[in-house]
């Protein structure tokens, strides 16, 4: 008698009434070359993206992010494994899958520079089978939300790099898709435009229930926008959790301290033992920032300050960030 356990199909209506994931990756593997020259760019990757969420795919250079994104879009044929979008196999029925998807790949050549902004929107909508007249109201909304209205009839070639990037995003959304893949969406944007883009991505997820798969080296954008982060290292998933949980698990503890009575020679000892920065003197007090590897190190720091005859007057925790957690994760033994 077989000991195998039969697991119900996740898409079996009798087993569950839940809709399928917006994106589902199962056992995705991609190798290049043969024999001793084989390179495994993606190694048995599996994860889901639920509808209406923003998920970041992060990793150091060479981690397999680009291959993974292109495989999810059907641009790269995997060696093994599968990808489905809204329950449709991307490689088995690409036409049906593409009806749900828009993509903005890295670089400014995502749109046609000789066409105007509006002509680009109409062109990319028509590629998805939409008549321009039927989506004009949608396009007007996008132009307004991305502050492109005054440039609607301007050739893209005449726009700044940041404006071109926003046109690329608008074209990705030109036919009102369910899932948007964005690779480095803030590349070339000034601070104000990047903040506007963050706000628009959150609005799309929260108000329009759009699913966004985002890859970026801009950790501020990922931390501000993403509900969840998948971190890849060497083609595999090294972490898959919410931003908050990753920061809490891998982030370092940072504090700003204000102390009285700290002798000048004590600074050298603190610099040797701790990651200290931004020494400033205000009146009779000394202020500095310190990054600690864990919570227990704070007790050691307090002991050292008391031994030096200093009195801690104020201790302020500073915000933990995703960048510190990411570097700890991909660079450390964990």
Automatic annotation (TrEMBL):
InterPro entries associated with the record: AAA+_ATPase, ABC_transporter-like_ATP-bd, ABC_transporter_ATP-binding, P-loop_NTPase
Sorted UniProt keywords: ATP-binding, Nucleotide-binding, Transport
Keyword check for Translocase: no
Residue ranges constituting the ABC transporter domain according to the UniProt record: 23-259
A GO molecular-function descriptor: ATP binding
Region described as Disordered: spans on this chain: 1-30
Listed Gene3D superfamilies: P-loop containing nucleotide triphosphate hydrolases
The protein's name: ABC transporter ATP-binding protein
Originating species: Halomarina salina
